Amino acid sequence: MPEITRFMPPQGGRKYPPFAQSVRHGPTLYVSGIGPMGPEGVPEGFEAQFALVMEHLKRAIAEGGSSMQGILKANVLLTRAEDVGMMNRLYAEAFPADHLPARTTCVVAALPVPEFLLEIECIAAVY
């Protein structure tokens, strides 16, 4: 059976719910939903939140042994339907065109932190 490695979220003085930030099982990395929480709290505006989520996602992916090119599947959760167009534009800039992952985008009523406008989770290949 392949080894299972769990990567915990950075604590930074904050308390987190009981989950691993990501879990690597063999050549696959499962990354929990990542929101736009920064050292100063949650930034205002969709673009700023998206940029912070991508920064956190890149760090989590690298820690687990993968890269943005290794992402196989992404789930994007948005709290406002009007952000879909901007999300598509920013998402296209964040992922190389020849390495676009499969993706599901959902508009949800709310996320666990009320200020979050989005959250992204993914599955990546470890190579």
From TrEMBL:
Gene Ontology MF annotations: deaminase activity
Gene3D superfamilies in alphabetical order: RutC-like
CDD domains according to UniProt: YjgF_YER057c_UK114_family
Name of the molecule in the record: RidA family protein
GO CC annotation: cytosol
Matches recorded under InterPro entries: RutC-like_sf (IPR035959), YjgF/YER057c/UK114 (IPR006175)
Residue stretches spanning the membrane: none
Classification via PANTHER family: 2-IMINOBUTANOATE/2-IMINOPROPANOATE DEAMINASE RIDA, 2-IMINOBUTANOATE_2-IMINOPROPANOATE DEAMINASE
